[in-house]
Design a protein that fits this description.
alpha/beta; three-stranded mixed β-sheet; 45% helix
């Protein structure tokens, strides 16, 4: 079973060395290393990639322009020699047993399209988290689509067969950088009910920066809602359509995007779900609906504080 580790990078600089060191420390060294360098003029990252390209067993794909993470991952999948891909961001690491555990799990579960396991998050401030993904699997260790879609904790860098990537059409290169192309990809995998198996091991180390793509902003909040909206049929498929539409309406109202709520409010009304939010969306002009909802929410919070005080 041939495995390819695909490292996508942009301007990670010395952090890329750390990622590569984690590959050098793997107990199983039988894998292909493929670096996809998304275009930038960051001198240190370019020089590091050139140095690695000179090493035996390492290939580097140089993208001619800055195309973003989705395009970089697609380029890696297209060029990989292996049947199994282990994705790795340029500033993250793989624990020493990852390649061995991934190979073993795929060998023991012939026919599954992907694996998902536990992972570590190392924050900028040094805080450590162990994310236990067993909560989104069934008793037979297979993915519980509804559980994962309800509370997303699956790692976007989960090991995947190239055939699975092909089956869903790869990553959507039309998504902007803050729209979490990895979540979109896996949501579409779930929509096709491609089965995955849980590996009871820590298989990834995410060095999470609180800036850049992980920084929370109004635009990112709207982008996350758009991600839910574009995959709404998948949520409908697993009985989560009502909850997701309520979340969309609330989110769009709070972020002054009320014009996008009416189609969801009409769907809820047709399915006999009618409450205060759907009422103001259906009965009031879009801008006024956002204002009314914000005022009512602020008033509710104020009353709650007064109630708790007394």
């Amino acid at each position: 079973m041939k495995v390819t580790v695909i490292i996508t990078c942009f301007n990670e600089g010395a952090k890329l060395k750390r990622a590569m060191e984690s590959l050098a420390s793997q107990t199983d060294q039988d894998f292909e290393t493929l670096i996809v360098k998304d275009y930038s003029e960051h001198y240190e990252t370019v020089e590091i990639c050139k140095n690695f390209e000179a090493q035996e067993g390492v290939r580097v794909i140089w993208l001619p322009e800055n195309l973003g993470p989705a395009a970089a991952r697609n380029a890696g999948y297209q060029a990989m020699v292996g049947e199994i891909c282990i994705p790795l961001d340029g500033d993250d690491e793989l624990p020493t047993e990852t390649v061995f555990e991934v190979k073993s799990a795929f060998a023991q579960n012939d026919g599954v399209g992907y694996l998902f396991g536990d992972y570590e998050i190392i924050h900028d401030n040094g805080k450590y988290e162990h994310v236990n993904c067993s909560v989104v699997c069934n008793d037979n260790r297979q993915m519980n689509y509804r559980a994962c879609l309800s509370e997303w904790i699956m790692l976007g860098m989960s090991p995947c067969r190239k055939s699975t990537w092909k089956q869903v059409g790869g990553y959507d290169e039309g998504l902007v950088i803050s729209q979490r192309e990895d979540v979109d990809f896996w949501t579409r995998v779930f929509g096709k009910e491609i089965q995955g198996v849980y590996v009871n091991r820590i298989i990834y180390r995410w060095n999470r920066s609180e800036s850049g793509r992980n920084a929370l902003s109004r635009k990112q909040a709207v982008d996350n809602l758009t991600l839910l909206e574009r995959n709404i049929q998948v949520y409908d498929k697993f009985g989560l359509g009502i909850d997701v539409r309520m979340r969309l309406i609330k989110g769009f109202l709070l972020n002054k995007e009320a014009c996008r709520t009416k189609i969801h409010a009409k769907w809820l009304f047709r399915h006999n779900v009618f409450n205060f939010m759907t009422f103001i969306v259906l009965m009031l002009p879009s801008n006024f609906a956002s204002f009314v909802y914000s005022v009512c929410l602020a008033l509710r919070r104020r009353l709650t504080k007064l109630w708790c005080r007394y």
